[in-house]
What we know:
Blueprint: H1 2-7, E1 13-19, H2 26-47, E2 54-62, E3 66-73, H3 80-85, H4 87-98, E4 102-107, E5 112-119
Parallel strand pairs: 1-2
Antiparallel strand pairs: 2-3, 3-5, 4-5
Bound molecules: adenosine-5'-triphosphate and magnesium ion.
Amino acid sequence: xxxxxxxxxxxxxxxxxxxxxxxxxxxxxxxxxxxxxxxxxxxxxxxxxxxxxxxxxxxxxxxxxxxxxxxxxxxxxxxxxxxxxxxxxxxxxxxxxxxxxxxxxxxxxxxxxxxxxxxxxxxxx
Length: 125
Ligand SMILES: Nc1ncnc2c1ncn2[C@@H]1O[C@H](COP(=O)(O)OP(=O)(O)OP(=O)(O)O)[C@@H](O)[C@H]1O
Ligand SMILES: [Mg+2]
């Protein structure tokens, strides 16, 4: 998260990361990385557009079977109609399917939250 936000050159976006360690199936890791990159890029591009400052939070949580990654911005929010049209969000949906994950969008009032839920691989010793 800090790499993507850092590479945007924006110092007016504050970050709050609450991440617990999770095991991700190696076969799904690159798809999850691409999904996260697109969600973060969207937040920088659309939520914090035109120099609008803001706050980005990332929460990583894991249960026994599933892990979740939730990314929330406090931008103007995402019109539900916008989602289906463009390449980025359909890429997220397709990559999620490929990684046996699910992507959901909800209103953060104000802003947008995207949650990725994916099967959690058990740690092997
Ligand atoms: N975090 C967000 N806050 C507000 N609007 C958003 C957010 N994420 C996406 N959107 C809206 O949803 C639309 C679709 O997003 P999507 O990623 O599919 O396309 P894009 O970012 O415009 O183009 P690209 O194909 O390069 O990703 C965006 O054009 C924007 O209007
Ligand atoms: Mg996009």
